[in-house]
Amino acid sequence: MASEFPRLTHPIVQAPMAGGPSTPELASAVANAGGLGFVAAGYRSPEQLRADIEATRTLTDAPIGVNLFLVAETEIDEQALEAYAHELEPVASRFGAPLGAARYDDDQLDAKLNVVRELRVPIVSFTFACPSPELVRSLQDEGITVWVTVTEADEAVLATGVGADALVCQGVEAGGHRGTFEDVDGRGELGLLSLLRLTHAVTDLPLIASGGIADGAGIAAVLAAGARAAQIGTALMLCPEAGTSAPHREALKRPGRTALTRAFSGRRARGIVNDFMCEHEPRAPSAYPHVHHLTSPLRAAARAAGDPEAINLWAGQAYGLAQERPAAELVRTWSEAQQVTSASS
User: Fold this and answer.
1) Cα(139)–Cα(131) distance, rounded to whole angstroms?
2) Boundaries of CATH 3.20.20.70 in the chain?
3) How confident is the model over 308-324, as pLDDT tens digits?
4) Considering only CA atoms, which of 326, 328, 298, 307 is closest in space to residue 33?
5) Which fold has domain 1-71+106-241+326-345?
6) Using CB atoms within 10 A of its CB, is residue 326 exposed (0-12), middle (13-18) or buried (19+)?
7) End-to-end CA gap in the chain
8) pTM of the entire structure?
């Protein structure tokens, strides 16, 4: 049975940004301002996830969500992966870091599901794949609302069919990893407006718009296109509450362009173009999370050295609109601007 869409003072959802930017402070700031805060479970251990949820709850009494990765094991080109590792050895050596072991894992999904069930998190969103109807039903039976990230209309049909309560429509403008069910070139590359309208035509579920939204006018636009709320990530990455690294913050303040790449993780993701992306993207294999684990120590060392040219600078196409302001202030400012824009249109 579908759950009611959460009642938000402001139609703004903080995008879960795995790998550092999402923090309990950011999620609680957005929630306390009247939006919906999210805890990013990706790359966190179950114990760390538990600590993040509990820390967030000490900072807010408002509902929060948790985002989980659904990583399916797929066939990969082992020779291409081995060749890519050999290509990256000189880069890792330059930073005095070893390459990691290229391997598959499911991001400890079952253990993390146990955490969200035990802590009774009200909303769980999934990305990278469609959950089974049994998983959706089991969460709903425990009072947990299920959102599924989609990037194509046919994915929306599948997610509706398994009983999802709402869909996060991720346009190609979005920063970070593509949430498409299959990481195949050409799939999951619809612009947000087209995706919203095509999805609206095939499902009656509430839609949350994600991708390139960074101000009140952008929020007003996606609401007019049929979304119930706007999910915003990159525009919050310069907030003091975000855990964005120093070199990433500096890159977000400079003009540049973004592109999709598999160079850092083996799965298409949008980031600010830098030297690593330009040099290695042509030979990066489709192999997630294998490449993620391979490059993780290298990226950590480069991050510690403050080098923005060798780390993933995930960012959406509208990253130039990001501001260094407290998250709660941005949420209120965006909502006020959205209301003015909607009223005048």
Assistant:
1) 11
2) 1-71+106-241+326-345
3) 999 999 999 999 999 99
4) 328
5) TIM Barrel (3.20.20)
6) middle
7) 36
8) 0.96
